[in-house]
Amino acid sequence: MKRRRTLTLAVATAAALTTFTLTGCGALDKAMDCVRTADAIATSVSNLQQAVSNASNDVTQIEESLTAITQELDNLNNTTNNADLSKAVDDLSKGVESVRTAVREGDATPDITPVTDAAAEIGKVCTPG
Description:
By secondary structure, the chain is mostly helical.
C-alpha cells in the first residue's frame, strides 16, 4: 500500500512538473516573441528614420517603412494580452497613421517623434527583467 501511495505521489509530482514546465515555456515563448517583434519594430523604425532623411531621393521608402512597422504591430498584437504593451502598440499605430497621413498630404519630412517614442515604449515593455 505504501508503494502504491509513493507511486501515485511520483506520478502526481511528474504531472505537476510537466504542467508547470509547459506553462512556463509558453510564457517564455510569448516573451521571446515580444522581444523579437520589438527588435523588428526597432529595425523598421530605424529604416523609417533613414527613409525620412533620404525622402528627397525616394519618398516611397517612407511608405515601405510604415508598412513594415504595421506588419510587425499586427504580429505583436496577435501574441500579447499585456495591457501596457497593447497601449504602446496602439500609440505606435496612431503614430504610423499620423506619418502616413502627413506623407499623403505632401509632407516629405514628417515628424516621426510619436513613432519613435511609442517604439521605445514597446522596447521597454518587451525587455525581460
